[in-house]
Amino acid sequence: MYDSRVDELRNKLSHLESQQSTANETYLSIQSSVKEKRERLKEISSNLDKARHQYQVLTGQLSSLETLQKSIVADNQELDVWLKNNGLSEFKRLSQLLKIEEKWAHALETVTSGMLGHLCVDNIEQHMDKLESIPGKVGFINLSSAISASDLDEKYTTLADLISSEIKLSFLLSRIVLAGDYEEAKTILNDMPDGYSVITPQGHMARQGLVSSQSFGAGERHCVIPRAGD
Known about the structure:
Helices cover about 45% and strands about 10% of the residues. By secondary structure, the protein is of the alpha/beta class.
């Protein structure tokens, strides 16, 4: 009688241990599955963030292209006629001559936003008298502007250093120093001589007494500048 009871309990214990083992295996399997699903969810979230970022970039570029299409002076028929009559139609616009690597394109567009439709000429003085009669918003940029001596430490890089096209805009860009992010920009700014600015790839600018995320123009939407390699 006693032995029979012991055997019964032993069998019951063995059965419970078997159930526990099965439950543990199920738990570990579920835990592994949850971990895999979490990692997959993390991967999907990362891909989604990248896709959103790319969408924002492409949307911004599309908006810039649309703005460029509306604002480039070459699209103005009246201006085209005026340029031809005044012997200026062969000169290219700044937006057609500038080229820079993709990373810094937005920074360059930020700085040059209000000048992208300007005509690039060899001698501004020869054309100054024509500005009063020009039918539109356009100016002249001197291709032969002298480059002033720089008092900047050689460890820094300026926007002018990255221009991979004939026109460098050194009179404007040689005093704009590059920073990887805004924190670095603040550090660099402390080491800058008077008259220098610091800019990030996103177009945020800082100089003594001023911090801005806007363009030098009056809040204009940036136009697209050809990227190096395009």
